[in-house]
């Protein structure tokens, strides 16, 4: 059983490890669905965390239809990830029809080399998930992160279960979005997946001295932090510890 926790800071990675995570997905700007983290963050998490670190490669928020210049940026980010000795990469690209962009993915997977690749939740807006799974398998993708094309993995559990049956062990299904101590056991029992993905976040208010009502430096006056207790609660719900 693998517990992948999505974090956007060194403190978050350390909290996830203490809470029982077995793998880190490292990104920035979770509020935008996760973007490529900075070089410094990648380096420090690798240096201090002690868990496998899979890095998000996503140059911007919004859709997953990338231009040539955006793909060049992604390829450069992958090159740095090799230098930083990360343990895996997370990316995805779709075409204008909502299908897997096979040509773009070939470039990205080739650049990834021997690093395992997770196709992220771009999968959840694919028009034909059954076909997409086979395409990603042929491309050499190791796992697919999915909520079953629903808002939460629990709501999408029927599609996740069907995809798990289709996969037959050839590719890993990583169930994510809305995973909680209350639904994780039922999710695992109904889908038969062996890997889950969650953020375990809680809100932390900004320091009151630095709050000005007429000035905004983000979408809210709080920021999200990974909660060690929230990670531990999901792990305990599964392992019964």
UniProtKB/TrEMBL annotation:
Alphabetic keyword roster: Cytoplasm
Matches recorded under InterPro entries: CutC-like, CutC-like_dom_sf
Transmembrane segments: none
Principal subcellular localisation of the protein: cytoplasm
Record's subcellular location: Cytoplasm
Family in the record: Belongs to the CutC family.
HAMAP family on file: CutC
Name of protein: PF03932 family protein CutC
Organism annotation: Deinococcus roseus
Species classification: Bacteria, Thermotogati, Deinococcota, Deinococci, Deinococcales
Recorded name of the encoding gene: cutC
